[in-house]
């Protein structure tokens, strides 16, 4: 018996903007674990739906207790398949992702539905479902709990990444950049204070010898 989780998220941007951001969301400061993305297949159906399949390569560091069950070359990376269908008439985008690396150890399948929020037509609602399972005898429960915790953490990063890309698309300064700027300025101020203190100490020392 695997783990199932369902949650919803809200982006205060139109469905069109979110769909555009979906294809531009890598790289962003919250997706450093995504190494590559390659389009395997893409077509437009007679009903004008866009169907795509992509292969994503991600870093996926396993906990130490799990590494013994993985080949050495597979402990730090994972391959993910992502299928998506964009329906411009129904104004929905549906994605399905699953891992093809070490799937016997842990399989994670995620389904997302992007649609217009019913309460505010200018916002986009994301319904996210995930199924986590493991067929490793004796450790399946521990592995599923690990996968569930990692999934919840990745959802938070995914939403922050979306917000970052959407802000950048609209010409705004993303909050991440503002935080980095503040940190950089603080470092510069601290460095300047350190240099000034060093100069004052050196000046005082010279006075002693005059």
UniProtKB/TrEMBL annotation:
InterPro entries given in the database record: PRELI/MSF1_dom (IPR006797), Slowmo/Ups (IPR037365)
PRELI/MSF1 domain residues: 2-174
GO cellular component: mitochondrial intermembrane space
PROSITE patterns for this protein: PRELI_MSF1
Protein name, UniProt field: PRELI domain containing 1a
Taxonomic placement: Eukaryota, Metazoa, Chordata, Craniata, Vertebrata
